[in-house]
């Protein structure tokens, strides 16, 4: 059974979707298929989709410098949207989730930056030449989200155009009926952390990437955008996983994509298996590798796409 592979004490929801159909799911006590749960950093991968759609509309160019006014008098002016998506901006940052430790991400989400996450991140100085060093940073994602809002025409404090874009161009199109995106007081989508949806709806998002950005025959993401997500820039020493553009990859699993979040949230996309697995829960850092290994044990149960 699916539950044998994952610690049910910390897993709140698990969905296995094979060849486009949910073939197994399990939920903790008090959680159902209708319960919406937090994405944490799986939202970064949703941000990648939104950027792709905006680029398809001609509103963003990932290869161009950001044009952020505060950066124009120093070397931050060379940071591109692509650098931000690859986590290679060069901006100084500490991504630490332990309360009491020095942490830019905690300060951004809950401290002095809580009302304007992007402004907090934009204000950080350079620590390295843009494009030269990989460092995972939730701050860079919220800069991306602000650039998206600006491109869509939202002014500071306003979020209406970005909300409509997310809802109408993504959630409505692929049937994520439960999904909600949260915004800060400045009107910026908290693309680093805050999308709520059911496990089944997160699986629909994974399915969009499994199908190369197509949904019911219609192109939702630009041609090549899914490959853009998995174009690996680094193998992370801590996780042993690759990182592309706001998506992780799994060594040994060709074409894999993983949206990964704090507490062990996972959307695992495995084209060779025609498979999407979603796991939502509350797992301490020391056990998250075990959870991930359990998901790949589940994947091994399913045939490679095209085989019987």
Task: Provide a short characterization of the protein structure.
The chain is 30% helix and 16% strand. It is of the alpha+beta class and 308 residues long.
Task: Write structural notes for this entry.
- This protein is an alpha+beta fold and 308 residues long.
- It has one domain (2-299): Beta-lactamase.
- The chain has helices at 42-56, 81-85, 104-110, 117-122, 138-152, 160-174, 199-210, 225-230, 288-299, and strands at 11-18, 21-27, 37-38, 180-181, 195-197, 214-215, 218-219, 234-235, 242-243, 248-249, 257-261, 265-270, 275-281.
- The strands form four sheets. A five-stranded antiparallel sheet has the order 2-1-13-12-11, sandwiched between helices. Strands 3-5-4 form a three-stranded antiparallel sheet, covered by helices on one side. A three-stranded antiparallel sheet has the order 8-9-10, with no helix packed on it.
- Strand 9 and strand 10 form a beta hairpin.
- The longest helix has 15 residues, at 42-56.
- The protein starts with 10 loop residues before the first strand and ends in a 9-residue tail after the last helix.
Main beta-sheet annotation: 5 strands, antiparallel
Average pLDDT score: 93
Write down the CATH topology: Beta-lactamase
Strand line-up in the sheet with most strands: 2-1-13-12-11
Q: What helical percentage do the residues reach? A: 25-40%
Question: What's the architecture, going by CATH?
Answer: 3-Layer(aba) Sandwich
> What is the total tally of β strands?
13
> What number of structural domains do the residues give?
1
End-to-end distance? 21 Å
Shape: globular
Low-confidence stretches: 1-6
Structural class of the helix and strand makeup?
alpha+beta
Question: Quick one: CATH class?
Answer: Alpha Beta
Number of helices: 9
- Range of strand content: 15-25%
Corresponding CATH superfamily: DD-peptidase/beta-lactamase superfamily
Compressed to H and E, one letter per element, the order equals EEEHHHHHHEEHEEHEEEEEEH
The whole-angstrom Rg is 18 Å
């Amino acid at each position: 059974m699916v539950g044998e592979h994952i610690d049910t004490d910390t897993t709140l929801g698990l969905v296995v979707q094979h060849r486009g159909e949910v073939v197994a799911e399990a939920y903790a006590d008090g959680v159902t298929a209708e319960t919406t749960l937090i994405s944490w950093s799986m939202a970064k991968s949703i941000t990648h989709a939104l950027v792709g759609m905006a680029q398809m509309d001609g509103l963003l160019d990932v290869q161009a410098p950001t044009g952020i006014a505060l950066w124009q008098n120093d070397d931050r002016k060379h940071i591109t949207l692509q650098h931000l998506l690859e986590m290679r901006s060069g901006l100084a940052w500490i991504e630490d989730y332990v309360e009491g430790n020095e942490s830019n991400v905690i300060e951004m989400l809950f401290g002095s930056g809580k009302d304007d996450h992007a402004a907090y991140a934009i204000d950080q100085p350079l620590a390295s030449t843009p494009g030269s060093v990989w460092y995972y940073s939730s701050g860079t994602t919220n800069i991306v989200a602000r650039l998206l809002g600006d491109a869509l025409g939202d002014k500071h404090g306003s979020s209406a155009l970005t909300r409509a874009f997310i809802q109408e161009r993504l959630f409505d199109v692929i049937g994520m009926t439960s999904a909600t995106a949260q915004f800060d007081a400045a009107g910026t989508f908290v693309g680093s952390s805050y999308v709520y949806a059911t496990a089944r709806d997160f699986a629909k998002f994974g399915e969009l990437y499994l199908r190369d950005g197509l949904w019911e025959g219609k192109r939702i993401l630009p041609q090549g955008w899914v490959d853009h997500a998995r174009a690996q820039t680094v193998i992370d020493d801590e996780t042993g996983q690759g990182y592309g553009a706001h998506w992780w990859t799994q060594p040994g699993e060709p074409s894999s994509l993983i949206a990964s979040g704090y507490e062990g949230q996972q959307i695992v996309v495995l084209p060779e298996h025609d498979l999407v697995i979603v796991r939502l829960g509350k797992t301490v850092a020391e056990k998250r590798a075990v959870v991930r290994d359990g998901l790949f044990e589940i994947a091994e149960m399913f045939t490679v796409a095209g085989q019987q």
